[in-house]
């Protein structure tokens, strides 16, 4: 976790900021050429020249008293100061929400509060970028909001994502590319070294890929011929993104329950696979399945007779225990007693604590059919034994990818994390209030400083906000991600990449909803085709890799890094060379 600023440091920073109010630069004037036409430097190729020509006009102070300047160096200083304050706000919001998670546990806090508070600084900056001033001013400054929206998403999926692979890399097994925890002996091998995640991380990546749908909807509808139709498309995108955001929040709230259900089913399949494999090995005829793949009821009855040692025509737990000896249930967090309980629950339909012959036949037939549906067995004999052995290994691998240990560790942390819940609750509320207050107060001055810096340098405000603002709002996530992934374990890597994909999803849905509402209700023009395109491209490329893989070789980090300059170059070419906007 990043070092927290002390109250004294914040006080000194604010005093230094107030001193800046006594220094006012001069506004850069627009050069009027001999043809009498004023050229708009903000939408033309940037000159990157620091021009300081005279002007009688001074800058406008935010709130009437916040410091401002018209010089390049002065605005750069203000961006750094305001950006640091936004970083402090993001840090307070993150720490406060995590403290609430320790107190109240997952569910609404983990599924709703944490993601919303994580996106709050970005959403507030986007909101103030077009909230004040005339329509013309809002239309000019709203590109800062789009720059932050695109910059945050692309920074998370390129620079932070790629850095996590480099920092958290482990050796990848040759046979299945599975990452070996805490083993890093291959150095910077592009294919033999990398990182692994559980299967839930892939599911979250798929949700992230779907979160670009509102962008696609609004962009497709921009082909409508009328201005009112194009404006209506922004409203449609707003409603669609809000619906997806609500659905995502509901998924996050119910996610622990869904995950536990899937893990329980994986354990159930593991018991089935091990039990059937041992029965096949014990069945000398090898004919529990007939040639047509249907359960051989007569062979199952003969097997029942062989297991029924005391010949009382019913199986006790002791007799069933002999069948499951040798199955390594401890690998999936079960022991023999747990497995026996599951077998008895499935087979003992009469609830008399014994499995009778018909119950045994029905239970084995049911499990054989379930194994067939899973593709584990399609025949009889030694082929079926090998298939069931492979099925057993597959269920173990599936259980590992589902991350049962992660759930257990999270439960332990929730139980042991807080000693004084009441004081911790007060502290969490205070941190959230401080973080939210700093965000609300300094968001507008930061946007103004970015706009003034853009004017002073002739660098389009989109590029300034794309590069600079995510450094302020995403630094907390970046530091936390690098720290956790450096532990080089499947557990921490899965949590880290899940948080990255979750942050991108929240950015694409909540922040886009704020941006769309701003454009619609302020009656602004949607002219962000190039910016939307780069968001869609990066999310599709990274989402395609992350959705269907659980291991990521080192070479993928290089691909991620290259997508960042590619995005900037594509926006520049489309907007300032081809004139898309």
TrEMBL record:
It holds the Pfam family Na_Ca_ex. Keywords: Antiport, Calcium, Ion transport, Membrane, Signal, Transmembrane, Transmembrane helix, Transport. Gene3D superfamilies: EF-hand. The chain crosses the membrane at residues 63-87, 99-121, 141-167, 203-225, 231-251, 424-443, 500-521, 528-548, 554-578. One of its GO terms (molecular function) is calcium:proton antiporter activity. CDD domains: EFh. This is EF-hand domain-containing protein. It comes from Liquidambar formosana (Formosan gum).
């Amino acid at each position: 976790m990043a070092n927290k600023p002390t109250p004294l440091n914040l006080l000194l920073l604010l005093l230094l900021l107030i001193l800046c109010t006594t220094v006012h630069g001069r506004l850069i004037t627009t050069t009027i050429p001999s043809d009498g036409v004023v050229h708009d430097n903000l939408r033309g190729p940037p000159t990157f020249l620091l021009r300081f020509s005279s002007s009688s006009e001074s800058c406008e102070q935010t709130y009437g008293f916040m410091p401002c300047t018209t010089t390049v160096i002065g605005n750069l200083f203000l961006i750094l100061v305001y950006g640091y304050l936004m970083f402090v706000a993001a840090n307070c919001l993150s720490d406060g929400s995590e403290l609430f998670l320790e107190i109240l546990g997952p569910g609404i806090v983990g599924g709703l509060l944490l993601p919303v508070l994580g996106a709050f600084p970005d959403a507030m900056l986007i909101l103030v970028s077009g909230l004040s001033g005339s329509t013309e001013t809002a239309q000019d400054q709203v590109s800062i909001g789009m720059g932050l929206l695109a910059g945050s998403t692309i920074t998370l999926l390129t620079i932070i994502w790629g850095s996590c692979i480099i920092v958290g890399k482990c050796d990848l097994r040759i046979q299945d590319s599975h990452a070996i925890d805490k083993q890093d002996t291959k150095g910077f091998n592009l294919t033999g070294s990398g990182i692994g995640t559980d299967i839930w991380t892939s599911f979250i990546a798929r949700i992230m890929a779907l979160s670009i749908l509102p962008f696609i909807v609004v962009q497709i509808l921009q082909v409508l011929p009328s201005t009112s139709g194009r404006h209506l498309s922004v409203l449609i995108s707003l409603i669609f993104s809000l619906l997806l955001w609500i659905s995502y929040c509901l998924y996050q709230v119910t996610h622990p329950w869904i995950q536990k259900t899937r893990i329980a089913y994986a354990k159930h399949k593991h018991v089935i696979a091990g039990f059937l494999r041992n029965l096949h090995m014990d069945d000398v005829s090898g004919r529990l399945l007939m040639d047509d793949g249907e359960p051989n009821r007569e062979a199952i009855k003969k097997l029942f007779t062989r297991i029924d040692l005391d010949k009382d025509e019913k199986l006790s737990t002791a007799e069933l225990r002999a069948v499951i000896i040798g199955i390594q249930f401890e690998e999936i967090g079960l022991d023999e007693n747990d497995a026996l309980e599951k077998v008895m629950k499935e087979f003992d339909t009469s609830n008399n604590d014994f499995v009778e012959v018909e119950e045994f036949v029905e239970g084995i037939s049911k499990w054989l059919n379930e194994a067939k549906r899973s593709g584990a067995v399609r025949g009889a004999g030694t082929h079926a034994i090998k298939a069931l052995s492979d099925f057993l290994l597959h269920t173990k691998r599936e259980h590992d990818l589902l991350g049962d240990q992660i759930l257990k560790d999270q439960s332990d942390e929730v139980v042991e994390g807080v000693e004084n819940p009441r004081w911790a609750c007060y502290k969490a509320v205070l941190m959230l209030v401080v973080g939210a207050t700093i965000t609300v107060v300094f968001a507008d001055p930061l946007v103004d400083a970015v706009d003034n810096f853009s004017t002073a340098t002739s660098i389009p405000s989109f590029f300034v906000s794309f590069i600079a603002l995510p450094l302020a709002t995403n630094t907390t996530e970046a530091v936390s991600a690098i720290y956790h992934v450096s532990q080089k374990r499947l557990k921490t890597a899965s949590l880290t990449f899940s948080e990255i994909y979750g942050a991108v999803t929240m950015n694409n849905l909540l922040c886009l909803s704020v941006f769309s509402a701003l454009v619609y209700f302020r009656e602004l023009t949607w002219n962000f085709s190039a910016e939307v395109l780069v968001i869609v491209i990066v999310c599709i490329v990274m989402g395609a890799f992350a959705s269907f893989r659980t291991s990521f070789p080192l070479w993928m980090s290089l691909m991620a890094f290259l997508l960042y300059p590619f995005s900037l170059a594509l926006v520049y070419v489309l907007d300032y060379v081809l004139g898309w906007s």
